Amino acid sequence: MATTKKFRIAHLRACLLFVVLLSEYRAHASDEQTKTVEFDVRPGGTMYTFTESIGEYECSFSFSAQGGTNEKWLMSVGLDEDNRLFSCSVWRPTGKSYLFFTSFKMEMKGAKVEYANAFSQVAMAAGQRDVELNSEEYTIGESAVTHTEGKFKAQLSKVMAVGRTRHVEL
How far apart are the C-alpha atoms of 104 and 139, rounded to whole Å? Predict the structure, then answer.
């Protein structure tokens, strides 16, 4: 019970950190510190990878999906003003994907994952909320967030991660 409470408090702190960082990115970041790019998520069962970078930091989203037709998705990458935190978000801007994902992996290069989350539906209207995947459906590693084989239920609308860079003070 105490471990669950500690985990929830740590998770809440990480969520709050992400919200603060995201608002800082939007308020203070220059075009060189943040970037949002559109890409297609394609069905067909083939593994595809989309990659975006800022300086030496890179985010890659690899996936395989079935059903439907191509969907427009977005990837945002950003650095805080001290270059200590790198964030990456991949999401379906209409809120819900109609594709069935057989696999996914978001990988960060140059940063160690501090916080990550994945969602099956993203809120699009007031009063709605994002629907988180169950924690057993995905795995958070040192540099990646990936589906858990046999547990992932094929629904994905958003994956996000914040990583600590290997920034060194001189």
Answer: 11
